[in-house]
Amino acid sequence: MSDDKPVILTCAQPTGVLTMGNYLGAVKNWASMLDDHDCYFGVVDLHAITVQYTPAELRRNTLSCVAQYIACGLDPERASIFIQSHVTGHTELAWLLSCTTPIGELQRMTQFKEKAAKLGFKTSGENDVKFTHEGARAGASVNAGLLMYPVLMAADILLYNADKVPVGNDQRQHLELCRDIAQRFNNSHSPTFKIPEPYIPKSGARIMSLQEPSRKMSKSDENSTATLFILDQPDVLKKKIMSAVTDSGSEIRAAEDKPGVSNLLQIHSSLSGVPLDDLEAEFTGKGYGDLKRAVADVVISAMEPVGQRYKELIEDKSYLESVLKNGAATAQKRAYKMLAKVYRKAGFVERPR
Fold first, then answer.
1. What is the pLDDT of residues 116-155, one digit of tens each?
2. 225-260: b or e for each residue (b if 16 or more CB lie within 10 Å)?
3. CA distances from 93 to 88, 264, 278 (A)
4. Nearest 10 degrees: CA dihedral of 204, 232, 214, 221?
5. Which residues are catalytic?
6. Which strand (E) or helix (H) includes residue 40?
C-alpha cells in the first residue's frame, strides 16, 4: 500500500449471493479503483449480527462473499480484502465514538426507523423518537446493535482514515453522520480524522427488477424470477430473462415510458460495452424475443467465467484463508496506527511495550 494514493474503504455485509445489480452497479467498478487508490475491502460480519442470524450460515456466507468478490475481479494482490472481525480496532473505536454521539442522532436515522417498523414497532416524533409496542410482533425487540450500527460504520471508515467511501443512497445518511462524528472529535481533541467524501464511480449501471422495472433489482425480492444472481446456472439466467416484463408497443428503445425494455438494454450495454444508441439501431425492426435472447447470451457469456472461478475459489479454503490473513495484516497495520493516535488524543495511558 502506498502513502501517496488516497484511501478508499468499501464494506459490505455477507448476505448471500450477489445480484446482477450488485455486480454492474458496484463490484464491476471496484476493480477500476485499484490503480489510483489504496483500496480496503471489508466483509462486515459484525454488522450482520444486528438482526437474527444463524452462526453457521454467517460463517458460510462470509467466505462465500470473499470468493465472489475475487471471482468478480477484485485482485487480492492489489487490494486488502479482510473480514471486519479479524481486525482489532473496529469495535474499540466504535465504543469511543459512541461516547461522543448523541442518542437522538441515532434514533433519527431513517434505516433504524425502517428496520424497527419491520418488526412492528411504530416511531413518533422527529426530534424525540419514541417507540410504541402496539402491533409489534410477538417476541420482537429492537436491539442496541441496530441503534449503534451507524457508529460502528463510522468506526469502520475512520479507523482507516479513508478519503473516500463508495455508498449507495441507502447509506448516505450514515456517511453524513460519520462526517459529523469525525468533525466533532476533531473539534474536541484537535484534528485527527480526515472527513470522508462519498465516492461516485465514473459509471455504474442501475439495474432494475425483471418483473417490476420501477424498482431496483434486489436479492430479497420474493419473486424469484425478478432477480439475476451472479451464480445462477445458464438455464436459470435464460429462463428469468425470457420471462422479463417488457412494455406496450414493439419498439426497442431506452426511454422513460419503456422501463422494461430500457432495463434489458442497460444490462446488455453494461456487459457488452455496446452503447445504448447502437443497441437501439441493432434491434430496429426486431421483436422483444430477439432482445431477450441477445441479453441472455450476453449475461451467460459474462457470468459463466465468474461462476467457474467462484467454484474453484470456494473449494480452495486454504487460498481464501491466505488472502484473508494477508488482507487482515495490511488492514491491521493501518488500524493500529490510527487507533493509537485516537487513544492518545482521548487521554488513555499508552500501553507498556
1. 777 666 666 555 455 555 554 545 567 888 889 999 999 9
2. bbbbbbbbeeeebbebbeebbbbeeeebbbeeebbb
3. 9, 44, 51
4. -120
5. 115, 216, 219
6. strand 38-43
pLDDT band for position 279 (cuts 50, 70, 90): very high
State whether 96 and 20 are in the same domain.
Answer: yes
Of 275, 221, 269, the closest CA to residue 245 belongs to 221
Which of the 8 DSSP states describes residue 47?
A: G
All cell numbers assigned to 6: 488516497
Using only the alpha carbons of the chain, give its radius of gyration: 22
Domain extent at residue 342: 7-204+317-346
User: Measured between alpha carbons, how far apart are the two ends of the chain, in Å?
Assistant: 26
> pTM for this structure?
0.87
Domains in the chain, number: 2
**Torsions phi, psi of 6, nearest 5?**
-65, 150
User: What is the C-alpha separation between 143 and 225, in angstroms, rounded?
Assistant: 33
State whether 251 and 152 are in the same domain: no
Cα–Cα nearest to 307, from 221, 228, 211: 228
Residue 10: enclosing H or E segment and its boundaries?
strand 7-12
Q: Where are the beta strands (DSSP E) in 90-235?
A: 122-124, 130-132, 164-166, 197-199
More confident site: 166 or 290: 290
Task: Tell me which amino acid residue 327 is.
Answer: G
Output the CA–CA distances (angstroms, integers) from residue 288 to 174, 244, 252, 336, in the order listed.
41, 10, 7, 56
The verdict on 129 and 55 lying in the same domain is yes
Percent of the chain with pLDDT over 90: 70
Q: Phi and psi for 180 in degrees, rounded to 5? A: -65, -40
CB within 8 Å of 144: residues ≥ 6 apart: none
Residues 6+ apart with CB under 8 A from 158: 93, 97, 178, 181, 182, 193, 196, 338
Cβ pair 159, 151 in contact under 8 A: no
